[in-house]
Amino acid sequence: MEVKKRYWKGLEELKETPSYLQNKDSEFPSETSIEQFLSNDQLSESSTGRRDFLKFLGFSVAAATLAACEAPITKAVPYVNKPENVTPGQATWYASSYYDGSSYASVLVKTREGRPIFIKGNKDFGFTNGSVNPQIIASVLSLYDGDRLNAPRVQGKTASVSEADKAITAALRKATSIAVLTPTVISPSMKKALGEFSAAFGAEESSRVSIVQYDAISYAAIAGANEKNFGKAFIPSYDFSKAKVVVGIAADFLSTWLMANEYAPQYAQLRNPDAEMSKHYQFESILSITGSNADVRVQLKPSEITSLLSNILTSLGGQSSVNSKISPALQKAATAVVGDLKKAIGGSLLVCGTNVLEDQLLTNAINEKLQNYGKSISLVSELNLFRSEDVKANQLFDSIINGKGPDVLINLGANPVYSHPKGAELKKGLKAMKVYVSTASYADESSAVATHHVPDHHLLEGWNDYMPKTSHYAIAQPTIRPLGNTYSALESILVWGGLKARPAKTAESTVAYDYIMENAMASNFVSSKEDFNATVHNSCKEIKSEATPLTFTAVSIEGKNIPTPSGLEVVFYQKTAIRDGSMSSNPWLQELPDPISKVTWDNYITMNPVEMDQQGYNTTYDQEHGLSMATITVDGKTVTLPVYPQPGQALGTVGIALGYGRGASGEAIGKGAYQTKEYGGYDLDSNGKKKGIGQNVFGLLPVVDGRRLFSAGAKMAKVEGLYSIAATQIHHTVMGRDSIVRETTRSIYPVGEGEARKNKNQYNPAHTLQRLNEHGHHEEAPVSEFDLWNAHPVENVGHRWGMTIDLSTCIGCGSCLVACQAENNVPVVGKDEVRRGREMHWLRIDRYYASDQESQVGKKKDEHSFNYTLAEKASVNPTVVHMPLMCHHCNHAPCETVCPVAATTHSNEGLNQMTYNRCIGTRYCANNCPYKVRRFNWFNYPSYKKFTEVNPAQDDLGRMVLNPDVTVRTRGVMEKCSFCVQRIQSVKLDAKKSAQPVKDGDLKTACSEVCPTNAIIVGDWNDEKSEIRKSSKSARSYQALEEVGVKPNIWYKVKVRNQG
Amino acid sequence: MQKEAAIREPLILGHKTYHDVTEDVCRPIEDKAPKMWYILFSIALIIGLYGVGSICYLLGTGIGVWGLNKTIGWAWDITNFVWWVGIGHAGTLISAVLLLFRQKWRMAINRSAEAMTIFAVFMAGTFPLIHMGRLWVGYWVLPIPNHFGSLWVNFNSPLLWDVFAISTYLSVSLVFWYIGLIPDFATIRDRAKKPVAKRMYSILSFGWTGRAKHWNRFELVSLVLAGLATPLVFSVHSIVSFDFATSVIPGWHTTIFPPYFVAGAVFSGFAMVQTLLLVMRKAMNLEAYIHTKHVEYMNIVIMVTGSIVGTAYITELFISWYSGVEYEAYAFLNRATGPYWWAYWSMMTCNVISPQLMWIRKLRRSLLFTFFISIVVNIGMWFERYVIIVTSIHRDYIPAAWSMHYPSHIDIAVYIGTIGLFFTFFLLFARYFPVLALNEVKTILKGSGQSYKESPDYHKHH
Hints:
The structure holds 2 protein chains of 2 kinds.
Chain A: H1 11-15, H2 18-23, H3 34-38, H4 41-45, H5 50-69, E1 91-99, E2 104-112, E3 115-121, H6 134-143, E4 153-154, E5 157-158, H7 161-174, E6 178-182, H8 188-200, E7 209-213, H9 220-230, E8 235-238, E9 245-249, H10 260-269, E10 279-284, H11 289-293, E11 296-299, H12 305-315, H13 328-343, E12 348-352, H14 357-369, E13 377-383, H15 390-401, E14 408-411, H16 416-419, H17 423-432, E15 435-438, E16 452-453, E17 464-469, E18 472-476, H18 489-496, H19 511-522, H20 529-538, E19 540-542, E20 569-573, H21 587-590, E21 599-600, E22 605-607, H22 609-614, E23 627-634, E24 637-645, E25 653-657, E26 703-704, E27 707-708, E28 711-713, E29 715-723, E30 726-727, E31 743-745, H23 760-763, E32 768-772, E33 778-782, E34 801-806, H24 815-823, H25 830-835, E35 844-849, E36 854-856, E37 859-860, H26 868-871, E38 880-885, H27 894-898, E39 904-906, E40 912-914, H28 924-927, E41 935-936, E42 974-975, H29 981-993, H30 1006-1010, E43 1016-1020, H31 1027-1032, E44 1037-1038, E45 1050-1053, E46 1055-1057
Parallel strand pairs in A: 6-7, 6-14, 9-10, 9-12, 10-11, 14-15, 15-16, 20-25, 22-24, 31-46, 34-45
Antiparallel strand pairs in A: 1-2, 2-3, 4-5, 4-16, 8-13, 17-18, 18-19, 20-28, 21-30, 22-25, 23-24, 23-29, 26-27, 32-33, 34-43, 35-38, 36-37, 39-40, 41-42, 44-45
Chain B: H1 18-30, H2 35-61, H3 76-87, H4 90-100, H5 106-130, H6 158-191, H7 195-204, H8 212-245, H9 257-283, H10 292-322, H11 326-337, H12 341-356, H13 361-364, H14 367-393, H15 409-432, H16 438-448, H17 450-454, H18 456-460
């Protein structure tokens, strides 16, 4: 019998309840059927139907999913095909030429992945010998300025180039008079094009076209004087390397006068104290860079210059009918100058920086007397720059102001509204013009009112040719495809003259290139296409000049017809960084401390502190205490500026820098050109316009005989209130400390070796300490022999990177500082942060004045009566020493021991390394650094709103200038000079690849590379034959703060002044 | 039980019984808080929150909101840090060192002095944290195993020593303070009527029953902790001083710093104890327990440490000249006559001259005068740190880098904020914790209580 197990679902089944039995066969135990449920009336009353609900649900899920999936789009486009000459991670260098209206140089442009990021001088080709200036180095940043126009405009509205061309050509055809206003043209092709353009509108004399060259800074008097003396208006080439005696009179020839970047290395050739040294006298009112380097600097008023020149000329036996009477102090200096000049006949040079014809005639006569023509002054090689036609320009401007102007004005980038004394009236005149065409890169003061604007390329974007000197032909090649829809001005002129057609694909236009090449061949600058290509490769070539040397004809020099001011005189000078103001929107340049005053982001009235004290002006300032304000009135025109205490300023004179106050009407001239507020954003005036930086004083320039003069009689009045000033150095003397800068004179450090220089104790004393010798006697031993620690094993093991800086040849120009900023992505922090003492420059140039307590900078007159309070004050006319200072890479680095997380450590090559990623930001290292070279990221400079207007790293375009080899630092970390470790690594890798040791000279840091005077030498100290090793062993070499015992890897060399 | 000479002033005034002691200490906790407490607490809390807000702004924006610059990397931040650490010295000194020296007068003040210490160290600890540029990676100062490879902390760095010194000091002080609180919490627990309070104090008192065994262990632990804490009193500030002493900066690089800093710390710590207790004894009716004699004792400590500090100042000054080192000599000349002369002379007046007035018995026993001097001393000690830190680095080796320091409003807000927070904590302590070590005080009632000293029985034993 089968026993079957029985399973039941519940008690209901077991008990077989009636309800169970009733529902047992239905699948769903529901009492209401689905139909019944769905037919419920209440259900259909709800507004959302089931289907709708499902739709909504589906959509929301899909939408939410899609939203969550979206990733931020980063535009990193990889190369599909490797472009020629571009290897990611490898820099490509282009030889090119730089000309911006005030500087010229043969340059090398570094590009990375197609972006130009660094400019340095070309040491192999060109007469500038690899010398550049801060503006040239910084120009690479201007390329990425978002305010640079990126498309043509017609009547202020963006338009296509064909539209603009059509309108311009039509207007030109109708015009009865056409004027082309341009900064000095040194391009032979442009000259030719302009000639052809003129010819297109009438034959030579009857052409409807007039071409006027106009520069902000005029050297018309030099050309004018030469016209009288030589029968030809020209500016000669000077050669300072042939001048054993240099006399500068109000000419800042190492920084802003003519081709200063050409002169600086020439000058430096004769400034090496280990060989024959030139003697440099400087007479000036403001303290210029050149004056700070002079062996003897004499203060004088501008009104005394003519008499001084006349005095020198007559003392040399020349003829002058100008009053030669000068003050006793000047007479004494003049006698010394004449004495030295007489000893150096044919080997001297006297230059004068005024724009007064008589001064230049006297200068010529003196140089002729000294037989300098044909030697230090070339009569064959003429300088083609700075050929501003002041008289013609004045006529043109007057005509425009009076509404009689040409029917069409074409402006090729001059900015007279800003830089001409009649700028304001001129602006009204320009505004009233019916057809005003501009090719300027910006809608600046002059070009904002242009009716038609076809912007030119940045100079790194297009082809150009230059003839800076009569015997020198140079090419500028593009290093990047134009960033915007810009058009070569050369091409535009050719198009508007009906000589060439605008190509359809404008970005690939070869019009300018073809024209330049054809012209080069036609003019015999090059012999063939290959020769042209070779010239492009080298950027320049010397060409034969058939000019015969000119002969000097003496002219009688009458008294000058400019009024001699009796009271205060004001000198208008150019600052190294800003010069004529054309690049004042460049944040690197605005933040470059003036080499003398160390002030950034401002111009001001310089005045001797002695006079300021007498007249009740505030002479002490720091981050919270500003400067007194004053007005300067010249001929009824007034500016209000802060008064800066400038030791060395001639008594009875004040100085004001030109080049400031740009964009005063809110024109879009570039990122760094305006004042910003404390927490970011532009500081707007009551009309909602941006405020320019500083004040424009071009309007104050007197005009005599059509020439603008750079000094004038003035009235000064104090204004209530203080003005905050952003200076990177607020203490100016070295307080008699002898182990920071060392300065000596030629009499203590004479020419010669061995015996002659036995007195090292006098010019470069060693620091010693006492110790017990084995006999138990005290003996003096050099501090380097005392050591509490085990030394880092860097000597004679592998590499040991080191640097020497020669204080004798360093002129303090500031090029190294800008180069460092460009190379190392150093952020710009703006005026307010600089004022707070937080500039980020890895390399700074300390500038020290001598005080009355010191015989030289750093040398106490008397050890016992030395007064520290008095030592804080600079002398009335102090000697000046510039000292570049960066991380010293100490082998016993005090910063390394104190970091709690070991973020800064020593490499086995002697480098003090900073690991940003590890840094927690205690700032202990910075406090413990004796040189105070460490810089802290107080804010997030690449993103914090305070820096949007100043830091290039905050916009997409500006970021393109960043060096991809160097990290951009975040907030809260410390940074400092790395000795350009990225370059060291690259040099080592190259050496490794070629299986050769690193060659001496392969490594160049950014600072050493751009130094115009080769004052900075870097290299491997362990390489016994290296330049650096030799240099560090020089009798003049010392280590700053050696007695602290930190064992730095930087040596300085004693500054020698050629004084008796 | 230890007995004291009758001629010694009694430490407990009035005819207090054991029960009176309990009542006096517990009443403020059990009663409703007076209106004044709420007012003070609100003010302290508002100031404290303002400080917290400023710290948030600082952390969100960057260290640049302070007034520091390329030359002066530390100013108010580290000044405040050292100042608070200094203040945090008195508590442990009183409870540990004086315990070892069997100074019975410490019993009336050690509880609140220790509380003050702990709160002060909290405040002090804030500054090294917030002064970091990147607080979020601040844990890298701890030698913890990490995934960064072989990265380890730098044991050469005095800042790292600080981390260990401060954290050790804080933990030992906290434990020491808490151990002392246990029997007193038990007393409050036993008296508490409200269930929540009873539960809370019951947890806090760790099941203390007052058995002889408990007391025995209590005494032993106290002694061991005192032994541990005593070297810490000296090590903490010595190590803080190493931040400066091991550097190369003239004015910082000074071997005299460790003892000088410790003396200064005790000096300022006692001054802060005076400031707090003189108010507290009045507000909480504890005049019988903390009275002129206690104040006088503390004033003597202030006078002695003040004299040590003064001697150190003058020694420093002399050595700077005697060393013949240009930079050293100038650093001190600059302190006294440079742009920060006012800070230096404020420091000299407050720290060297004012404590010398304590030689006069009348002044030393004057509560009002003591209160005034206690505040003066703490102002002076703040200036001392400011002078050491700022005037040394604002003009060190390279004159071109010389600079000035001006505080920003955030500098001030953060500092004032920590004072607010400190008082917030202290007021909470005074409200909910026994401010007097009541069980310890009871042990000296018969030995040093006025009523016992005056009773005829007391003299019989001698």
